[in-house]
Structures are given as C-alpha cells and as structure tokens.
Specification:
Layout lengths: L11 E5 L3 H8 L8 H10 L5 H10 L3 H7 L2 E8 L15 H18 L4 E6 L3 H11 L5 E2 L2 E6 L15 H4 L8
C-alpha cells in the first residue's frame, strides 16, 4: 500500500477471496475448455509471434481457472476511477489511476517473491467479466478491477516458462537514445 499514486490519495482497495465457493462463482465468467487449435487462433488474433511468449500463454490460459481456485491467496485489487476507463481519452492523465494500481500490484508481487511466494495475474478481459466480479464481490461502481492476483508457493514440478533475456546495456540510454 506504499506504492506511489498519481493524486496522493491512494484510493485502492483489495478484496481477499478465501471462500472456495466464491472463487468458483468468480471463475464461471471465463472458465471454458479450448482446444489447442482454438488457443493458437487466440494468440494469432493477439498478434503474438515470439515463440517463448506463445508457449507461456499456451501453458497458462488453460490453467487460469485452476490457478485462481487453488491459489493460497486470491486478491482482487480495485482502484477508484472517476470516468470510464476505456472511454476515449483526451490525455494520458486519464490513465493515472490505472497506472497507480499496477504499482500496487507490482509491490505485492515483489514483496511476495522475496518470501518465495509467486504470483500470477489474470486480467479482467471484458466488461461482462468485470461486472460479474463487481456484482459477486460487492465492489462499488466507482471502482475498477484490473485483474485477479493469485498467489502461492509453486509446485516443485511447475512449468517455468522461458522469458526473453534483456540486457540492461541494450535498454538503458544515457542522455539520448542512440541505436
């Protein structure tokens, strides 16, 4: 809760969902079986072309419901949003509250990782899913819900997807961006 906020008001709330039946009610809005071909088509629609990225999604998407249901802790972060989040924006300033909640989420993930607890996010991907989460958990209309945050200790045999290696010297630019 010590993350920086755009307006210094830290208008965040989190709902910790412990009740297993409540979790089941939440995942009903997106849970469904997809074939490998259907998943590949989704990734194609998203424009994902990097193989390690595709492998991560091919592994993760089918596991989303079970991760939320079986997580040691399930958190639903919420942030106060004055205007509709996805409405046409006149400036980036309108996204400040959205950016602030992701700083909160990052802090939670970093603090947990330092204790050996891993977390995964499942983005709330549609207005219908958001409305379902809001109604199920009693979240006020003035608050947006960016994601679920499932946290717990990883299984010993858990798949660890390969990440793209990033070299700091290739991403840090001093005084100007020279290629």
């Amino acid at each position: 809760m010590r993350a920086p906020s755009h307006n210094h008001l830290r208008e965040w709330h989190v709902v910790q969902v412990n009740d297993r039946q409540q979790r089941q009610t939440l995942v009903q809005s997106f849970q469904g079986e997809r074939t490998h071909e259907e998943l590949e088509a989704v990734l194609d629609r998203w424009g994902l072309t990097v193989e390690c990225q595709r492998a991560m999604y091919l592994d993760g998407i089918p596991k989303q419901a079970s991760m939320l249901l079986g997580a040691g802790v399930l958190i639903v972060p919420c942030f106060h949003q004055e205007e509709p989040l996805l409405a046409e924006k006149s400036s980036l300033h309108a996204l400040n509250a959205f950016a602030s909640i992701w700083a909160v989420i990052e802090n939670i993930l970093l603090a947990a990782a330092s204790e050996g607890v891993l977390g995964v996010t499942k983005v709330i991907s549609s207005p219908q899913e958001r409305d379902h989460v809001r109604a199920t958990l009693g979240i006020p209309e003035a608050y947006e819900i960016p994601c679920y945050l499932a946290m717990g200790y990883p299984r010993a045999d858990a798949f660890v997807p390969k990440q793209v290696a990033v070299e700091v010297e290739n991403r840090l630019h001093i005084d100007r961006w020279d290629v």
